[in-house]
Amino acid sequence: MADYYKVLGVKKDASPDEIKKAYRSLAHKYHPDKGGDEKMFREVSEAYRILSDKDKRSQYDKFGRVFEGVGDQQGPNGFRWGWGHPGGSSDTEDGEGYGFDFQDLGDIFEEFFGGQAPRSRDNLRKGDDIEVDVEIALEDVLQGKKEEMLLHKFVQCVRCQGVGADPGSKVNECFSCRGTGEVQQIKRTFMGSFTKVGICPECNGEGLKPESPCNVCSGEGRVRGEDRVTVQIPAGVDSNQILKLKEKGDAGRKRGKNGDLYIRLLVKPHRVFSRKGDDLHVEVAVSLSQTTLGEEVEIPTLEGPSVLLNIPAGTPSGKVFRVSGKGIPHYTGMGRGSLFVTTRIAVPQKLTKRQKDLIQKLREEGL
Fold first, then answer.
1. Average pLDDT estimate for 351-361
2. Structure confidence at residue 37 as a pLDDT band (50, 70, 90)
């Protein structure tokens, strides 16, 4: 078993944040969808799964192994199967040991009960799901848009049409599993015999083996390639919203079902408007005379044309006005949010002599 700390490249006293940071860096480096090493990606993921969990990490630090799904259980003859003795004997109440190695017992339970249940042939052949991030402008949220993307993924092998065999060659029943895709493993221990049903190693659970595997895809029925996908982004979407495109992920093995494509949308910040839910917010600079005497002023909207907003006389700076129906369309397709306008009095930086004289007179009048 690999040292999980060495796999992630961190010290044993690394903090949870350091472990998470190391995992994200290595997962990005070894991710198969980015051309990385799939075996290393699995090792990195397993290491993070253990070390990111406080209890599992503590158990790993003490015993060097994590027994998932198996706790202290009452065993035969009244003693408990305690996992607190790595490689040693369990003590009975009178202090005499039973004399067997709990490390071996752990291996038995991990091998026969800790593994995953055999998957169906369809699931074995199914392609992996793909997750991608797509950035869109705030303006695109108003009407929705079509987005075309180029994915680097597994695609069906053109030579064998996904079968995995050279054209014209036969595909026979696997001799080892008699076409079932599963084999039984029996292990005898001091506690009795354990039987486990596992995936046939000869056919990888397919139940079939081609006489002559395709020399392009090596019998996989799929190869690394590119695929252009067009997605319709609906109006009203928000950041971190997920769109699912069924069967647009990795091609399955040997005509298996394709995985799904998950698109996480990221709405880019706007230089003028800020968004809160389906409402938009904007600040508008107004002059002292406009707020004092009142006036209609133009305010911008996300769709382009400005609209007139009536500023009543005596409006203070920071006053918020609501304009209905000028926000973001609701994702349900019914109605829109509002536009909230905050007025800010613009103080002039340069004044003419006449303007200074007029302001001086206003001050003399108590304004």
1. 87
2. confident
